[in-house]
Specification:
Layout lengths: L20 H10 L5 H19 L3 H12 L3 E8 L2 E8 L2 H18 L5 H13 L4 H15 L9
Antiparallel strand pairs: 1-2
Helix pairs in contact: 1-2, 2-3, 2-5, 3-5, 4-5, 4-6
Length: about 160
């Protein structure tokens, strides 16, 4: 993190098939050990499976899943005096997107059996319908922020 100048954000190019920057960000998070073509294959197979199951445009389902998984508020620890308080804070748009993508992938990876594309498709479908582990994580985060609303005046 530079001390003087602001760190420039890299330009994220849209993916080849859907022309979406969000899909590219998702593929980059799926990728392990630099194997981008494998990550793209997993992502596109998952979107194909969603299209087969729903008979709708998979981008609509993907966008709905991402929208449903996106948190708006989180808690951050703040030391005041000798105590540490969990202070609710609003989340920047970039961090919201990053958290939603990270939570969706973590939930998909923790699902049992089957291929990664099938697990990812199942998690995206669940999130689009407002259920599943990712949505539970978001609700837990919001519940924690709501419970600690009394400490909002410690926000910095």
């Amino acid at each position: 993190m530079p001390r003087r100048a602001k760190d420039p954000k890299r330009e994220i190019l849209p993916d080849m098939r859907y022309g979406s920057r969000t899909i590219t960000m998702f593929v980059n998070k799926v990728m392990e050990r630099g194997k981008k073509s494998t990550a793209e294959r997993i992502m596109y197979n998952a979107l194909d499976k969603i299209e087969q199951q729903t008979r709708r445009n998979p981008m609509d389902t993907f966008d709905a899943a991402l929208r449903n998984a996106t948190p708006t508020i989180e808690v951050k620890p703040r030391r005041v005096g000798g105590a540490t308080y969990q202070v609710p804070v609003d989340i920047r748009a970039e961090r919201r997107m990053a958290l939603a993508i990270r939570w969706l992938l973590r939930s998909a990876r923790s699902r049992g059996g089957r291929s990664m594309a099938e697990r990812l498709a199942a998690e995206l479908l669940d999130a689009a319908q407002g259920q599943g582990a990712t949505i539970k994580k978001k609700e837990d985060t919001h519940r924690m922020a709501e419970a600690n609303r009394a400490f909002v005046h410690y926000r910095w």
